[in-house]
Amino acid sequence: MNGGVLFTGISELRTPELVVSDAVLAVEGGALAWLGSAGELPEPYCSWPRRDLQGNAVLPGLVDSHTHLIWAGSRIEEYGRRSRGDSYENILAAGGGIHATVAATQAASEEELLLAALTRARALLQDGVTTLEVKSGYGLTIEHELKMLQVARRLAESQPQRIVPTLLAHVVPRDTPRQTYVEMFTSELIPEVRRQGLAEAVDVFSDEGAFSLGETRTILEAALRHDLAIKLHAEQIAPTGAARLAAEMGALSADHLEQSSRDDWAELVSAGTVATILPGAAVVLRKPFPDARAMWDAGAKVAVATDHNPGSSPLYSLTLALQLAISLGGLSVDEALVAGTRNAADALRRPDLGRLEVASAADFLVVDGKDSLLPLYAWGARTIRSVYIGGVKVMSVDDDRTWPGFDRASDAGGRH
Ligand SMILES: [Zn+2]
Fold first, then answer.
1. What are the tens digits of pLDDT across the range 55-72?
2. Are 337 and 365 contacting, i.e. CB atoms less than 8 angstroms apart?
3. Strand 162-169's sheet: what is its strand order?
4. φ, ψ at 153 (rounded to 5°)
5. How many CB atoms lie within 10 A of CB 76?
6. Cα(140)–Cα(283) distance, rounded to whole angstroms?
């Protein structure tokens, strides 16, 4: 951007903790130079060119800190079978479940995977997601895990959202001895991923039926030796001690936590590890919903993510995940917004994202109406009018809709 720009006409700005009425944002070089109420705009900014946001509200760009966005094939038939009560174990034994996604992802070209991931990323963008984490984990061999992370890199280069790539130890392939696989993962795959700069973190699915606590520790130690951050899928299926391991080893986040306990939360709090809940998986699998309210009250830094994946969470909307965290997890509406912005950015070690403050990235959403919490209230509605990343408009509802704005009746200054 050449010089600074002022965004004016903001009915209500959420940072997300603070609320400012009749606000102005000053953006320069992709970051926020100043923000506050219009009446307090410092003199040096007054001559900057202005963009009038026409009485709409502004929020920080949403951050989806846990997705499996890159995959091929279809699990829609399995979705139907599970809806009729068939067990995941049966489906898995018949070669379905994750093994079906692995086979299809291995068979797909980079171009096919990229095209499918672009469509999913676009849906998240329209829902207000400006940053998303993308995991590998459906390749399983060195060749195909690297292919997935190459696709993540190309995804970052071919659309405007910020992509944070993670190498995931998902499951042991059916034809490989466990120890051989862990050895390959730690002594070949992690060093190669590091050498090519293809991931910022390593994640392990540590649970009953996935990696044991001992295997998880071995993989995470290798990640730390190679200066990669660590994360864990923890306590989803059974209480295993994985959340405490995450805290002990200084993980950025422990994700899922359906089976976690108060003792686990205390460890996460003292380690500063983000507690990420994944409403899509709990609801789709018909499991008890993680107690986000109790975690928050215990002092945990709670984040909410989509866990987008073809099996347990075919979820294309972070706002829907946040709405579920409100209705089923007991978070207040403003807490849910913090969970989907600031806390989620902290789970990705990006303290410049998920918040609107001086020097943070100018990633923000213009809500289609004057109430900033409308996106967490209006279930299933398209409530984001436009999306800015680094101060640049990257999505506008005006470009791809022919219908009038949402709830514009109350906004006398609106164009519709
Ligand atoms: Zn996951």
1. 999 999 999 999 999 999
2. no
3. 62-64, 129-135, 162-169, 201-206, 229-234, 253-256, 274-277, 302-304
4. -65, -45
5. 10
6. 27
**Which ranges of 189-314 does DSSP label H, i.e. alpha helix?**
190-196, 213-225, 242-248, 262-271, 279-284, 292-297
Please report the pLDDT score of residue 155 as a whole number: 98
Instruction: Report the residue count for the chain.
Output: 416
Comparing C-alpha atoms, which of 238, 232, 317, 310 is closest to residue 267? 232
Instruction: Give dist(CA 366, CA 339) in Å, integer.
Output: 19
The answer, as to whether pTM is greater than 0.90, is yes
| 68 CA from centroid of ligand 1 (Å) | 6
Distance from residue 333's CA to the centre of ligand 1 (Å): 24
pLDDT for 174-224, tens place per residue? 889 999 999 999 999 999 999 999 999 999 999 988 999 999 999 999 999
Across-strand partners of 276?
255, 303
Fill in the DSSP letter of residue 187.
I
Angle at 130 (CA atoms; ends 126, 135), nearest 5 degrees: 105
Residue 114's alpha-carbon distances to 154, 306, 360, in angstroms, are 7, 19, 29
**Encoded tokens for 175:** 């034809």
Ligand 1 mean position, distance from CA 137 (Å):
9
Determine the distance separating the centroid of ligand 1 and the alpha carbon of 123, expressed in angstroms.
Answer: 19
**The one-letter amino acid at 82:** R
Ligand 1 center to 67 CA (angstroms):
6
Ligand 1 centroid – CA 232 distance (Å) = 9
Contact predicate 396/382, CB 8 Å: no
